[in-house]
Design brief:
Helix 4 links the parallel strand 4 and strand 5. Helix 1 packs antiparallel against helix 2 and helix 4 packs across helix 5. This protein has a six-stranded mixed β-sheet with strand order 2-3-1-4-5-6, sandwiched between helices. It starts with a helix and ends in an 11-residue tail after the last helix. It is of the alpha/beta class and about 270 residues long. It is globular, with a radius of gyration of 25 Å. It is built from six helices and six strands, in the order H-H-E-H-E-E-E-H-E-H-E-H.
Length: about 270
C-alpha cells in the first residue's frame, strides 16, 4: 500500500516538473500564468481525486460499508498438509465453493492420494488497519497417506508463504503420528533453508466431536514433537469444525487467518537455537 502511494506521488511530481519546464520557456508572466493554470490547479484536483478514490479507509465505502476499492497485493503460496482424513480436502472444497454454506449433503470427499491445487482470489486480510487489502492464495494440498508423506518436502517452495497443518482432534490414536509427520517436514524446511519466510499454522479439526482432544493439548503434542527442530513461539492453532450446517464460518475464518499470515503476520519458521 505504501509503495502504491509513493508511486502515485512520484508520477505526479514527474508531471509537475515536465509542465514546469515547458512553461519556463514561455516569456514573462505568460509562463507563470501557464504554470498555474496548466499544472498547479489541475494537479491539486487530480491528487485529491486519486486520494479520495484510492484511500484505504472509512471514506472509501459503499452504502453497505464495503470498501469501494480493494488493493490486491498479488499471489502467495500456501501448502496444506496433514494425515489422510484430517480434513484438508473438506476445507479446500469449501474454499473452491464459496457460494455453499456447508459441505453438500451426501458429498463424500475421498482423501487426496496425490496433489490438489486451487487459487482463491481476493481473500480479505485484516493485517494492520488496511482491512480492504486482498491477496490471492494459491492453495496446494498434498495427500497424507504413508506412501506420499516422504515427498512432502519436495512441495516446500522457496517462496512458500504459509504451511497449514491439519490434525484430527477426534483421532487420538494417530495424534503422535501426525506430530512426527509435522516434525519431519519442519526438518526439511530448516535443514535445507527452504521457505525462509513461511509461517506455520496448526488446525485442529472435529474438536466438538465426542472424546476429541482439546486444541491446547494438540498444540502441546506438536510443540514437543518439533522441539529442537523449530522455534514454536508464536505458532497458533485454530479450531475448525467443517462438517455440518455451520461449516462455512470456520472455513472462511481459517482462510482469512491464512491471508494474514501470508502477508507477514506472526514469526516465520526458523531453526531452534
Amino acid at each position: 500500500v505504501k509503495s502504491l502511494r509513493v508511486g502515485r506521488a512520484s508520477a505526479m511530481d514527474s508531471l509537475r516538473r515536465a509542465v514546469a519546464r515547458f512553461c519556463g520557456r514561455l516569456p514573462g508572466t505568460t509562463g507563470l500564468a501557464g504554470y498555474v493554470v496548466c499544472c498547479v490547479l489541475p494537479c491539486r484536483c487530480c491528487w485529491k481525486g486519486l486520494e479520495k478514490s484510492l484511500r484505504l479507509g472509512k471514506d472509501s465505502k459503499h452504502e453497505d460499508g464495503e470498501p469501494l476499492v480493494k488493493c490486491n497485493v498479488g499471489t502467495r503460496k500456501v501448502l496444506v498438509l496433514g494425515l489422510d482424513g484430517s480434513g484438508k480436502s473438506s476445507w479446500l472444497w469449501l474454499c473452491d465453493h464459496p457460494e455453499d454454506s456447508s459441505l453438500r449433503s451426501g458429498e463424500m470427499l475421498q482423501p487426496t492420494s496425490g496433489v490438489q491445487r486451487l487459487t482463491r482470489k481476493h481473500v480479505r486480510s485484516s493485517v494492520g488497519e488496511e482491512t480492504n487489502v486482498t491477496v490471492d492464495l494459491e492453495l496446494t494440498e498434498v495427500g497424507g497417506g504413508e506412501q506420499i508423506r516422504p515427498f512432502w518436502g519436495h512441495y516446500v517452495a522457496q517462496d512458500l508463504a504459509v504451511l497449514v497443518f491439519f490434525a484430527d482432534a477426534a483421532d487420538f490414536d494417530r495424534l503422535e503420528e501426525a506430530a512426527e509427520a509435522l516434525a519431519e517436514v519442519c526438518r526439511a524446511v530448516v535443514a535445507q533453508a527452504k521457505a525462509p519466510k513461511a509461517r506455520l499454522l496448526l488446525v485442529a479439526m472435529n474438536t466438538s466431536a465426542a472424546g476429541a482432544e482439546p486444541s491446547s493439548d494438540i498444540h502441546e503434542v506438536m510443540r514437543r514433537a518439533t522441539e529442537g527442530v523449530v522455534a514454536f513461539d508464536g505458532v497458533r492453532i485454530l479450531e475448525a469444525d467443517l462438517v455440518g450446517a455451520a461449516g462455512r464460518e470456520p472455513a472462511d475464518a481459517l482462510l482469512s487467518h491464512v491471508a494474514d499470515l501470508a502477508l507477514g503476520a506472526g514469526p516465520p519458521l526458523r531453526r531452534r537455537r
